[in-house]
Amino acid sequence: MGTGQPTVVSIAERAGVSIASVSRVLNGVGARRDTVERVERAASELGYVPNAVARSLKGGRTRQLTFAMPDIGNPVYVAMVRAIQTVTKAAGYRLLLHSTDAVVDDELAVLRSLGDRTSDGLIICPIRITDDHVEALRTAAGPVVVIGSLPDDVPVDSVRADSVAGAELAVRHLHDTGRRRIAFVNGPSDTVPGHNRDRGYRAALADCGLVYDPSLVRHTDFGIESGAEAAEALLDHAPDAVFCANDQLALGAARALHARGLRIPEDVAVAGMDDSMLAQAGWPPLTSVDLGSTERGRRAAELLLERLGIAGASTGNPPPRSTTAPPRLVVRASTGPAATDS
Amino acid sequence: MGTGQPTVVSIAERAGVSIASVSRVLNGVGARRDTVERVERAASELGYVPNAVARSLKGGRTRQLTFAMPDIGNPVYVAMVRAIQTVTKAAGYRLLLHSTDAVVDDELAVLRSLGDRTSDGLIICPIRITDDHVEALRTAAGPVVVIGSLPDDVPVDSVRADSVAGAELAVRHLHDTGRRRIAFVNGPSDTVPGHNRDRGYRAALADCGLVYDPSLVRHTDFGIESGAEAAEALLDHAPDAVFCANDQLALGAARALHARGLRIPEDVAVAGMDDSMLAQAGWPPLTSVDLGSTERGRRAAELLLERLGIAGASTGNPPPRSTTAPPRLVVRASTGPAATDS
DNA sequence: CTGAAAGCGCTAACAT
DNA sequence: ATGTTAGCGCTTTCAG
């Protein structure tokens, strides 16, 4: 009838003890030497593997955690996965990965699925925050940590990147190295990162005494091809630098420049963001702003684990906490000195 | 005492019916109009979400599938994830992702964890096959599909890449475009892909009437930095082409060539393998051999779903099947014509 | 130290 | 059409 897999019952029969004793031995609770031996022998002879589902139903915990990200193909999320995995694995949790493609309905579904008890907690990285998100976060059936910015009154732990300051860092650097026509390839304007990077770009421009020129700015989706197309279009406006909202866009931009026979950085400088593995994939290596993806992932995982620990304790739930990872400019060859107009 | 989450019991009480009726309504089995309405209202008022764990315990299935790959940072596996996800999602399964770092013990642990009933089936992509793998595959507690080659006598479905033929395709092409000193940056020699690519390289060399020169060959691990280092070393031996066992290595090699001021493809041609997203990330775009990663992922998922369907039926288990995806050469600028020795 | 028994939330006979 | 009841495999009181 069943799956044929050994259970505590089969072990108990074989060892001639009760299922309670089997459970105790298997969980390292005290038992007589003799009992321990017989149970262990029976278990290994039968090739017993505890049924995690049954254990979860009883214990109320699955020891699984979920990470939902917009795009598994984007290296910045890979970095987060690695960081999160390191922390959660050490704590004895499996990690379930979800790629939502930044589709709002998918994100909401993940949030609601916390109620199905498939995982004990969730780290989610939405790039847009709608009212539905806020509502779903408020009513989440389990602990959630958001990687990204969200309104202050949403009672959820969050880990943020400071992309405003990050964008400023990049633009200032470009200005410092002599560029004056700094183009900007940004992500979608209706996303939080897109919006913030735009703010940083404008602020830095103002700081440097440069005027904002809409013809030097493009919004597109995050991705190599998009970066190439946007940069292509931008070239008609003779920029001396292209700042991109992530490394994928920057790689695409660099390709477009090469295709036009322009030299990087002599003719046009290029800078990216995220300082992902891609920053050192092309030529020349890209200057990029590290937004602390690894640190954000680690921190998010730690926050989630803390919540989980507290949930067990009798303590009331402490107020939500929010950390912001500081940005860091990593200078590489793509923003070296401009050609001297001999 | 419980988690406070609504259950069938709370709904039954609120709707004034039995838990059986609740279950029926929730599962779309016939019931009187009146009953349906009251149950549905109660459920939505309570914000009920079925407990998937309890459902699994009862039904014996989790509707979760696992994909275990060597490295989540390698775009070729990202392509597989996408393909697998598409198929499994359509069939109503969640996908659990595991990055094993190609560590044998991790892979074995994943294989054995099938016994804990956390997921209904497994797709695994090992790059080494040890005796322990074979043993674990034989005794797997659930359906498994292997992406990769394994001994014929292992009774498991598998989906293979033809990397021997793939490597031949690339080397022939390099030869056709006039290259005669074709260097090879390969992955670890103790892996199945590494071994096969080496075979293809040698076979093609022989076919083209070229001699195998060990000083033109390097083994390293798969990764951009490794590719750069290996190519760097190879340059002392004046190759006119560098064939790399994957796109990451090729990107690294391209970077090393650029750093030395060599032109691609005029001075040295570069070709990669996998035709991943990275092939079009750098400059010039890379010629690469598509090993059918998307198709392999899709096929693996289909095979697994078939096994799952059959497991339910009374049919005896059919013999294992093995598919091989044909390789396809994608020519891009990195292997354009060599400079004419004016 | 050990066994009997309850019950986690749900589905599926079986009865009514 | 609906209610009662028996488990799925496990952990954990509660007695002995």
Please characterize this protein's 3D structure.
Two copies of one chain form a homodimer. Chain A has 342 residues and is of the alpha/beta class. Chain A has twelve helices and twelve strands. Chain A has helices at 8-15, 19-26, 33-46, 52-59, 75-90, 104-112, 131-138, 163-176, 192-207, 224-234, 247-259, 293-312; strands spanning 64-69, 94-99, 121-124, 144-147, 157-161, 182-186, 217-219, 241-244, 269-273, 287-290, 322-325, 328-330. In chain A, the strands form two sheets. A six-stranded parallel β-sheet of chain A has the order 2-1-3-4-5-11, with helices on both faces. In chain A, strands 7-6-8-9-10-12 form a six-stranded mixed β-sheet, with helices on both faces. In chain A, strand 8 (241-244), helix 11 (247-259) and strand 9 (269-273) form a beta-alpha-beta unit. The radius of gyration of chain A is 26 Å and the shape is elongated. The mean pLDDT of chain A is 94. The interface between A and B is large, with 50 and 50 residues. The structure holds a DNA duplex (16 and 16 nucleotides). Chains A, B: It comes from Streptomyces citrinus. Chains A, B: This is LacI family DNA-binding transcriptional regulator. Chains A, B: Keywords: DNA-binding.
